Amino acid sequence: MSKIFFHVDVNSAFLSWSAIKHLRDGEDVDLRTIPAVVGGDEAQRHGVVLAKSGPAKKYGIKTGESLFAARTKYPGIKVVPPDFDFYVQKSKAMIAILQDYTPDVEQYSIDEAFLDMTGTEALFGPPLTAAHTIRRRVRRELGFTVNVGIAPNRLLAKMASDFEKPDKVHTLFPEEVPAKMWPLPVGDLFGVGPSAARRLNAWGVYTIGELAAMDRDTAVRLFGTRGDTLWNYANGREADPLTKQRARDNSYGNSVTMPRDLARPEDADATMLALCDSVGRRLRADGKTARVVTVQLVDNAFRRTSHQTTLPNPTNSTDRLYHVAIELMRQMWPQRPVRLVGVSAEKTGEDNFEQMDLFTDAARIDKQEKLDRAADALRRKFGGAAVTRATLLSPETRKPEALSAAKERDKKCPVEPVAASHGSFVLCMSMASPEGEAVSGPDR
How far does CA 318 lie from the centroid of its chain? Predict the structure, then answer.
């Protein structure tokens, strides 16, 4: 039986998903229909284009360039910040749909997946029919579009999905390679980066077909064993398995570039708490625990360092992750000021009970778990901003008079600030119930 693979790729994923979120939140204009980009806050030193709309692409705006450069091409460009939690939700929803068509779904990145569709024709029809069914269902149920590539191996399926966009299905079978793939620039071949493309151009190789026609030994002399792989790719052969780009399912991480360089580790404690809160929340949402905690720092000379430790027992507690992370951070703090802080939790397993020993404060752990669950439940019900740790509030917002002033400004929505503390952790909540009744405590 001939193998059949699909490669499903979301069209301009971050921009599309941001557009869906903004429409859901009440905006009238679809970001996909105007010159728009997803990018960071330039004041926070994240001024890079992460994704662009079709109209923005027409002005020559490219992913990876600075927002300053994008504005020189189109001064009125709409810039929206990324929302990675929402992107993960959309990615999971797409994967759930794909799993209705085959159990062999291999997620390649947050917005891409390979499907082994071999032997499914009796269920879903010929490959083209099945691919269009998937494409239309994703658009109808999730509100964004995908390209689907069809081929006898993953390499050609991925190459096919990069053909004309958006919302298309393309095939790339061996007999189609000379007409569809070989005329493309050599830099379009999977695995050929800008540096490799320049080197090939210097040898007079400008298209994928010219690389395919190159003597195999010459390719190996140019790039070593990787040259053999690229030569096979150019000839449509999947010599080596494609390497996943995505963060592994068993790794949960978050990082942030600081608005100013930090000279001391104490200056990053609040940021680390926010990062550990995010990682812990995601672990708990997926019913996972982690055993390995890694902290990453980047100094103002862009030197990257990381330390990790293996916990005696797996955990998804924000409190536990935070205490381990700040200890690692203090051990590795560099001589130069730090501009980026990150934390990740890895080697995860199913959520389970933490094994106790004679020195474990069981009551404290139980209380912290209840606090985490209460905060998670409130966020699910009222939104991510409903519950905030008081440590993360600015000095002005922590003042009682500031809270009173905020309450006075919002008479239509009765607000009752509530705090529940445990050790150095304080959750500060300011919100109202859907019925307008002020929520009186975190356990409610």
Answer: 20
